[in-house]
Amino acid sequence: MLLPFANPPYSQDNVEKLIRFCTSPQNRHKPFFLLMPNYFVKKNYYIEKVDNGQSLRPFYVAPRKRYRYRTPKGGRDQGHDCEKTLAVVGHEIGHSILHHNWALLLVTMGNLFVLFFSYGVFQSTPSIVTSFGFSENETGNAFLKIQCFMAVYGMAVMPIWNILMNAFVRQLEFAADRYAVRLGHDISSSLLKISITNKADFNPDWLHSWYHLSHPPLMERMEAAKAYQATLSKKQK
Predict the structure, then answer these.
(1) Could you tell me which residues come within 8 angstroms of residue 123 by beta carbon, excluding any fewer than 6 positions away?
(2) How many separate domains does the chain show?
(3) How far is CA 89 from the centre of its chain?
(4) Which of 124, 126, 145, 146 is nearest to 135 (CA)?
(5) Structural domain ending residue among the three candidates 21, 56, 78
(6) Which of residues 57, 78, 99 is at a domain's end?
(7) Which residues does 43 contact at the CB level (< 8 Å), separation at least 6?
């Protein structure tokens, strides 16, 4: 069964494409259901493809009360800037083109290696339990070794790993920004709009940012993008 839906805001030619898809030769004999305002039934493309009195026999269901769609606050007055969207898309494509997903996978595998290696060290070291006054072969030593491992790994290894991981991810973000700049997009304006929408701190404390934030602060990214754009301009000259 074919059940496509059309939902607000019914932008551009979305509904027309949906109707053409539902009435295409490969889908013509499948039932379909469309949820949309009733003014679409008066469109020429709807009459031509659906309500033409030929093979299709549509029926309609309407609510007793008039349906009112309220746009969320700020949803219509923000506008749509295609250039900002293209810049963000270029940034995300940069992650894919530069194989950042594979880089993150390798780093995650490295983290798992450190995890299991550390656990093996704790399991094969008798002094982990004997230093607490327990005998080497006493019942419950395995639980004590796990507790010691979790405490040491969580308080000593993970903080350092988080700092290194943040530094690595930041370099990937800078690289994706540079890719968007190479495509000719203004990534700075897109980053600014995203930060304003998310109510992010434009220039947080460097120590807090260094430890807690995986993405570079807005000001650093904008300065890096501006510097790279200047470098490209010099090369083109």
Answers:
(1) 142, 145, 149
(2) 2
(3) 11
(4) 126
(5) 78
(6) 78
(7) 15, 16
Distance (Å, rounded) from C-alpha 211 to C-alpha 196? 22
Q: Count the helices and strands in the chain (H runs, E runs).
A: 10, 0
Could you tell me the sign of the dihedral formed by the alpha carbons of 33, 34, 35, 41, in that order?
Answer: negative
Q: How far apart are CA 216 and CA 170, in angstroms?
A: 6
pLDDT digits (tens, 9 = 90+) for 42-95: 888 888 888 776 667 777 887 777 767 665 555 554 555 677 888 888 999 999
Residue 191 is part of which domain span? 82-236
Angle ∠(25,27,31) on CA atoms, nearest 5 = 135
Residues 90 and 71 in one domain: no
Based on the domain organization, do 44 and 155 belong to the same domain?
no
One-letter identity of residue 79 = G
145 vs 148: CA distance, rounded Å:
5
**In terms of domains, do 62 and 125 share one?**
no
Q: What pTM did the predictor assign?
A: 0.61
Alpha-helix runs per DSSP H in 67-201: 82-97, 100-123, 127-130, 141-152, 158-182, 187-198
Question: Crossing angle, helix 158-182 and helix 100-123, to 10 degrees?
Answer: 170
Helix (H) / strand (E) element for 55: namely none
The first and second tokens of residue 30, run together, are 């499948």
